Amino acid sequence: MNFTFLACETTLPDRPNRRNDAFEFDLQFGQLQNALRQSGHTIQAIDWKAPISDFSDADAVVVGTPWNYQDYQQDFLNKLENIEKSGLKLYNSAQTIKWNVNKSYLKDLAKQGASTVPTLWVNEPTKMDIQSVFDTYDTSGVVVKRQIGAGAHGQSLYKRGDEIPDGILLDRPAMIQPFMPAIQTEGEYSYIFIDGEYSHALLKTAKAGDYRIQSSYGGTETPIQPEESDIQAAQDILSFIPFETPLYARIDLLRGSEGKLLLMELEMIEPYLYPVEGPRMSEMYAAALIKRALV
User: Fold this and answer.
1) Measuring CA to CA, how many Å separate 52 from each of 57, 63, 86, 235?
2) What is the value of pTM for the model shown?
3) Residue 257 pLDDT > 80
4) Cα–Cα separations (whole angstroms), residue 250 to 16, 148, 158, 286
């Protein structure tokens, strides 16, 4: 069988404007390609903007590293719907990804029982909103994030005592959260699941003086062997998803002040799945993809 891995112009090899974290594409695609090849199958990486006719013979299409989709959100979602309308199998599904694009999905999961970081949801964040979170949670800092975004792009941290500008602070809907000290003192945990099965986990830590744990900001990753109770806490979050079990998912968690793991994000669009930290993940991914394509 032949598969297609959707990437983008800033993650594909030999592109002049490659992102500084595009090496993650090399690792994730390369190891999946090797795992499929060992079973006699092939996979090609292609820009998600390419015509569907360029991969119409694929047995299935996976959303891999289209890490510029936020700049073309509606075009991206339309493309995924059109891929499915063409008769191609798409993972994760367009329906799942559309729900996962806006981080307001966290409200849905919280209603189902997921423990999440306290969040104020506003369309036009202002100084009053920042002050409200300071007052409500008695926190040393407040983080403003895009409701639609990834990789900490457009994110701001305001510390108590900072001069906060007047006017609208972000040109798009925002989620405002109290700063969680554990992001600097302990780090963020990521749990990787393939077809609903636990693969591996890791701890992501920021470089000294920063709080952003992404590799593009100097963050580092360390594989861990979590407690069974923590794995189950992550597994429970998957059960709250209102759609079919995703082919791939990354659950990002942070320990709260009372020691409980809190959900930061459930990544089902184009997460980096840390294949180096999870040596069996690519084999699991390949096997699950083949299984689904055969149905």
Assistant:
1) 9, 14, 8, 34
2) 0.91
3) no
4) 29, 17, 28, 17
Tens of pLDDT, residue by residue over 122-173, are 998 888 998 999 999 888 899 998 888 766 566 788 888 788 877 777 778 8
Tokens standing for residue 279: 């040596």
Reported confidence tier of residue 119, pLDDT bands at 50, 70, 90: very high
- Fold of the domain built from segment(s) 105-116+183-274: D-amino Acid Aminotransferase; Chain A, domain 1 (3.30.470)
Phi, psi dihedral angles at 190 (to 5 degrees): -125, 130
From residue 153, give the alpha-carbon distance in Å to each of 146, 170, 214, 249: 8, 12, 10, 21
DSSP 33-74: HHHHHHTT-EEEEEETTS-GGGGTT-SEEEE---TTGGGGHH
CB neighbourhood size of 294 (10 A) = 9
The domain defined by 2-100+284-294 folds into: Rossmann fold (3.40.50)
Rounded alpha-carbon distances, angstroms, from residue 88 to 46, 151, 211 = 15, 29, 40
Beta strands (DSSP E) in the chain are: 2-7, 42-47, 60-63, 90-91, 120-122, 141-146, 156-159, 174-178, 188-194, 197-205, 220-224, 248-255, 261-267
Cβ–Cβ under 8 Å, residues 63 and 55? no
Domain extents in the chain: 2-100+284-294, 105-116+183-274, 120-178
Distance CA 51, CA 190 (A): 34
Q: Which CATH number fits domain 120-178: 3.30.70, 3.40.1280, 1.10.150, 3.30.1490?
A: 3.30.1490
